[in-house]
Specification:
The relative contact order is 0.16. Helices cover about 35% and strands about 15% of the residues. The strands form two sheets. It has a five-stranded mixed β-barrel. A hairpin with an 8-residue loop joins strand 1 and strand 2. It has two domains: about 90 residues; about 160 residues, Phosphatidylinositol 3-kinase Catalytic Subunit, Chain A, Domain 5 (Orthogonal Bundle). Helix 1 packs antiparallel against helix 6, helix 5 packs antiparallel against helix 8 and helix 6 packs antiparallel against helix 7. The longest helix is centred in the first third of the chain and has 16 residues. It is of the alpha+beta class. It contains eight helices and eight strands. InterPro entries: HipA_2 (IPR046748). This is HipA-like kinase domain-containing protein. It comes from Flexibacter flexilis DSM 6793.
Length: about 260
């Protein structure tokens, strides 16, 4: 992946109300809006997970907002938005517009193969969520955008700090792959899979893990090397992530589960 850029905040536009941590929408010095996740509100490990997942999604040719390290500048926000560790480097993701948030109220997929330029992207995102154990893309909060492009609609995956075990500690490699609290168990995915062409979908599943393992290793290690030293992330965390991602037995279980879900 290209080097992660560093941007500086100019002005806080809004603090978004969500059911979790409230992202901060900052106008930054590169002339773009970023949704920022500052240290103090988010653990360094969670921010590392965010960056790793963004890189993996890009490697899988799935849409994800471009990421950046963000230096939150004193004077770019009001005192009421008190930010701990505000001088530390945090992360942010560029705003995607125009885009619509997938929610419980806006979740109908009309004419999948006609309206979406890459109909299998959501299937790949569901596989990805099993792969990284993302428990934060559920029916209560899909953490998905539908972006409007000149070539048709496309899904954009956001918010991945709950992957790899999240705040509960790193996921044990022996933990069975489970559809619980995952996208594949949601109403949105249920009505999506009804519109899939089964033979094509099965082919996507069979080839999902046909990636260059060296590429995955390089992505994870490069991001770790780029992290600010002040984050003080354990040196063995990249290895733990790679052991999970490259476990062939576990990946075969993911393929089997998804094929069963489509049957």
């Amino acid at each position: 992946m290209p080097a992660i850029p560093l941007v500086k905040t100019v002005l806080l536009d809004t603090e978004l109300p969500t059911d979790g941590h409230k992202p901060l929408r900052f106008w930054c010095d590169d002339g773009r809006f970023y949704f920022c996740k500052p240290l103090g509100r988010h653990r360094p490990e969670a921010l590392f997970y965010e960056l790793v997942c963004a890189a993996l999604l890009e490697a899988l040719e799935l849409r994800v907002p471009p990421s950046a390290f963000v230096q939150i500048q004193t004077g770019s926000f009001e005192k009421k938005h008190f930010l701990k560790n505000k001088t530390e480097i945090s992360i942010g993701f560029q705003e995607i517009a125009p885009a619509e948030t997938v929610s419980q109220h806006i979740s109908y997929i009309k004419n999948l193969n006609g309206n979406f330029r890459r109909p299998h992207s959501l299937l790949k995102i569901a596989l990805f969520d099993l792969w990284v154990n993302n428990t934060n893309r559920t029916q209560s909060n899909y953490n998905l955008l539908v972006e409007e492009t000149e070539f048709g609609k496309d899904w954009v995956a956001i918010n991945h700090e709950s992957c790899f075990g999240g705040t509960n500690g790193f996921l044990d490699l022996e933990t069975p792959v489970s559809p619980t609290n995952k996208l594949i168990s949601s109403a949105y995915f249920t009505q999506y899979k009804r519109q899939l062409r089964k033979a094509e979908a099965c082919n996507v599943i069979e080839h999902f893990f046909s990636f260059d393992t060296k590429l995955i290793e390089n992505e994870v290690n490069a991001i770790f090397e780029a992290l600010p030293e002040s984050w003080q992330i354990a040196a063995d965390l990249p290895k733990n992530i790679l052991d999970l991602l490259l476990c062939q037995e576990r990946n075969e279980s993911i393929k089997t589960l998804m094929l069963q879900t489509l049957s």
